[in-house]
Amino acid sequence: MGTNISRDSDVLELNDPPMYAYGERVRAKRMIRNDGTYPGKEIGEVLVKKGQEGFVVSIGTFLQQYYIYGVEFIETGYKVGMKRKELEPVDDMNGD
Residue 83 falls within a domain, yes or no? Predict the structure, then answer.
């Protein structure tokens, strides 16, 4: 019996510190749909649209390989677990 978990066997993020810090503002690089782990939403329902911004509110790990960043998205209030490759930093430097 197999598993549908996708692993990038050459990636081991946990050898380095997390890319993002608690409270850091980040942006989704792609659309994220419910894979069945978000309660109260249908599987396949869009949770995060590409470009939405939020703040890192937790940092965990997955498969002893990846950091998972709990990001609370400003527009929806959803807290969604995301991998580093699904996020990019938001540059808050605006000349103020």
Answer: yes
- Phi then psi dihedrals of residue 54, to 5 deg: -160, -170
Residue with tokens 């990019």: 88
pTM summary value: 0.80
Q: What is the CATH number of the domain that holds 36?
A: 2.30.30.50
Q: Domain containing 20: what range? A: 13-89
| Owner of token pair 């209030």 | 77
The span from the CA of 83 to the CA of 44, in Å, is 18
H helix or E strand, kind and range, residue 67: strand 66-73
Q: Which tens digit of pLDDT belongs to each residue from 56-72?
A: 999 999 888 899 999 99
